[in-house]
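Hi R.,

Here's the chain you asked about this morning:
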Amino acid sequence: MFRRFGLLLGLLLWCLVSRAQHPATSASTAATSAPKRQLQALRITEGLKLDGVLDEAVWQQAPVASQFIQNRPAPGLPERHPTEVRILYDDANLYIGAVMHDVSADSIPRQLTQRDDLDGNTDFFGIFLDTYHDKLNGYGFFVTTGGVQCDARYSPAGGEDFNWNAVWDSRTALRGTDWIAEIRIPYSAIRFSGVPEQLWGLNFMRQRKRDNQGFFWNEVKPAVDGFVNQWGELRGIRDVKPPLRLSLTPYVSSYLNRNAVSVEGQRRTTTSFNGGADVKWGINESFTLDATLVPDFGQVQSDNQVLNLSPFEVQFNENRQFFTEGTELFNKGGLFYSRRVGAQPIGYGSVEAGENEKIIRNPGETRLLNATKVSGRTSKGLGIGVFNALSNNVYATLRDTETGQEREVLTQPFSNYSIMVLDQSLKNNSYVSLINTNVTRFGRTYDANVTSGLFRLADKKNAYAVNGQVVYSRRRGNEFGTDTPIDDQNGYKYKLSAGKISGNFTWTVSHGIESASYNPNDLGILFGNNNITQGVNFSYNKYNRFWKVNNLYTWWGVDHSLLYQPTRYQNLVFYGGANTTFTKRFLTTGFNVDASPVTRDYYEPRTLPLGDYYVRVPANAGANGFISSDYRKKVAYDVNAAVRWYAQDDRLPRPRRMGYGLGVSPRYRASNQLLFIYSVNWDLRQNQIGYVNGNLSASEPLDSVFREQVPLGRRRVVTITNVLSTAYTFTNRMSLTLRLRHYTSDVHYQDFVRLDKDGAETLVDYRRNRDNTYNAFNLDMVYAWWFAPGSQISIVWKAASTATLDGNEATPLYFANLNNTINTPQNNSVSVKVLYYLDYLALRRKRV
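And here is the predicted structure, written out as tokens:
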């Protein structure tokens, strides 16, 4: 079957190349981009007062960009309420003045949100710049009617990335039935070449929230693949030199910590004072160095801790700004999981107390010494990125209970993390890239290196494309703290896909292999290797209104997976789905369905090498759907539901598996400043078969039945998550947010089996109570004030607690778990952090 699929893929690629060579045969089936509009910028010699008024005479002399075209909900229609935009420039800044005409002031919603949040009930205006005109990478700057600023980067790897922040300024004002935005973007906030005359990609966007309409100056067609490639052009900027980009953002922070429990030799209440800095230096017109010295990430949002019953690790979101801002180059190829940097020490779980000893300290995080990024793109479209971070030794402390003598155990050696990226932009929205990641650890352990090449090639019509990636992983050394050599020294992965990318009807066919020894996890993340995967999917979308809906998006396909070594069947999945938005009430709804024959799960048994043992999953089918109401209303809601049905497993006398899920999330906008969101999610897995969580004990007589065996249990798992979020936004630069999360998951085992080779299961009389309940609680309260461009004061209160109940203490009663969580001692932390942005250019002007 694998060979037949490879032949099919080869034929499809041949057809693709043939169409690219004879574009006339495919032009009728491809959606084409709109013609490129052009706008001339006007140079000014005197400064402008940034006040949102646009009363200087020079604004009326500049050419006007108008006649915006609707992108949603009815693509292609001209705007009824005109938008007028003008661009001015001088030697230091780009100025944008925009007038948004409307019916009345009451037609312009003005909800205040936090910085970089465009999801509120508000209008906004945005400008997009492709400063190297490569039609792949760009900047976005937005301002809402209330003056809230948002900025983003656009790239093939990162899509729309609002984690990127720049230092710029803006003002907005209401004038009769119009609202006005005036924006000043310093050249130090963007990168561009030093040629005498600039040619930049350009687009503008306007949102009219009253009618849920979005408009672009240069038409952006939903049926055309890509976004930056559909922008117009900005001309007329001449004799502008890229400035020296040098800024320093020093910080000071202070913490008051209250530990949940008293530990011998440690105070329950501690204080700390920290200091460091972030440095940005424009090495030349194209490249920027970002460095964080002695970073402090103690104020980031708490992780959503969960009970993990799977054979794979939990992937957490990255909330540290240095690792989310400007990392689009480093994320190419999916080889960088930034949480590896400063993660839990690799020897954290191997610390063992000797006789008459106990563990006093065992740090769960690695403190970084510094981290540095150098990235940029030349005028020829070559993107270069270099990332490097250093972490210090980490030690656990053990104390002799009789003598009081302490000793330290190394859990993480001094380590260096690095990434190198070369990314060449090509014509026709295409690129080719080379990525290398490396982890070097000092001392008695191992090093890791991963190298990858990837490409995207699209035809001139942007109708068809081929994507590919090849990865080689290399590890050398011994397992940490042992003389055992690493057993996955060399591995590889490749993936190839091709398909039709534009038009109402699109399709993709793909194939890939991950070898049994492929392991990028030292600086990346991978959920299971040793796979052969292939699939084909189709999509048919209607972007214009019909019947009673604004649009319709549909998809369907099939995925197939084999174990690579030995080559054995894993699973086959047929899937499909659709979603739409109704025209009058803007109610969005959708569903997904899937079905699979019998599946073999080779990972659940936790045995190596893969192939001999697997958990047999009966044929099953699932469906889930959601409804989301109109967020323009003061009261809105989101509802989702899911069900999974399994065929009866007749091998043993036990009930049928079932799965259910339900989520409800109402929201209430009390005013333009105050918002409440509450969500509750309930999930039930009935008669689930899985590896018995928790370790077997050699000293426990009841565990002897599973000695050197693979234990599985039939269990009932109920998980409930409650999250309450509220935000009060004082001004467009000051906010107070609160997030409360309570998570509880209860596992009740009903019987046990011994797993044998080839999926056979044998019931065993196992009497040990393996039930468990996990509770987690987090509170994050953040006060943030952007008192000057790039400068911030933040005050954060964090509280957290976790509790695990085993055996007879475990309970499925929700309110008992809630009461247990409330009464569990909590770790509390109150911190104050001050950042101040210092721009070398501004300081130099002041001295002059």
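One quick note: Residues 342 and 367 are 6 Å apart (CA to CA).

Cheers,
M.
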